Amino acid sequence: MRLLLTTPPIVFWSLVILSLPSCSTQHQNPALQPSSPDSSVITQQTYYYNCPGSPDIPVSIKDDVAWIFLPGKTINLPHVRSGSGAKYSDGINTFWSKGEEAYFQTETGKIPNCRNNRRLAIWEHAKLTGVDFRAVGNEPGWMLELRPYYINYMGDYGETRQTFVRPEPESDREERQTVFRVDNGSDRMTIILKGKECFDTMSGEKYETTVIIRQYGNRLQGCGKALH
Predict the structure, then answer these.
(1) Do 13 and 19 meet the contact criterion of CB atoms below 8 Å apart?
(2) Final residue of a domain: which of 76, 93, 118?
(3) Disulfide engineering: 126 pairs with which of 58, 111, 121, 131, CB 3.0-4.6 Å?
(4) Is 35 among the domain residues?
């Protein structure tokens, strides 16, 4: 357990996010859709490339096919042989990565010197695998995902994992908050989403929603945002 506690938060979440169950995806392409709410998304890898002088480019790889989300369109490229790194190409468009670096060739030209942003890739992966809302908190590290039919919670740096059927929420417009009261027969939890800006206690990043979790007399607070 000591290894988990000393692992940097961004690296930790990038390792555990792939193990969560999924039930849908924002994109309607069946190649990116898990087969059932309980199916694993381990085989799907997501990257989020920052490219100097160009818009950011998310990439999702599954079953030897790379889905490239370019501004205004999405293309899929088959895996091809390369001397080094991982290369995907249809003869016109190319995505070639090595480590955290990547190069793109499209109909409009070359996009070199792109670098994967691990933190944003985690959020993009959640979005592409059907998460409606995602929240995180620190000390101890925890993560919450609201999917169309399920709610996944991971706490204590990954030691605690709980899944609940997503119930109808209790909404209060005057208080600008939404409450989910969940019970899976073994665990109970109250989740409160407040329409109040929130700043991550480690990164300082600003989020649109303050999230409070109450369970067994404990209170956790973190930040989250809608992904769809």
Answers:
(1) no
(2) 118
(3) 131
(4) no
Beta-carbon contacts of 21 under 8 Å, excluding residues fewer than 6 positions away, are: 34, 37, 38, 39, 40, 41, 150, 152, 163
Greater confidence (38 vs 72) lies with 72
Give the distance from CA 58 to its chain's centroid.
12
Indicate whether 79 belongs to any domain.
yes
Give the span between the Cα atoms of 16 and 160, in whole angstroms: 12
Number of domain units in the chain: 2
**Cβ–Cβ < 8 Å for 89, 77:** yes
What six digits make up the tokens of 44? 């799907």
| Structural domain range at position 212 | 132-226
pLDDT at residue 12, as a whole number? 36
CA angle 33, 100, 154 (to 5 degrees): 50
Same domain, 137 and 58: no
Q: Are 146 and 169 in contact (CB under 8 A)?
A: no
pTM exceeds 0.85: no
- The predicted model gives 204-216 an average pLDDT of 96
- Yes or no: say if 56 and 70 are a contact pair by the CB < 8 Å rule: no
The rounded distance, in Å, linking the Cα atoms of 55 and 71 is 7
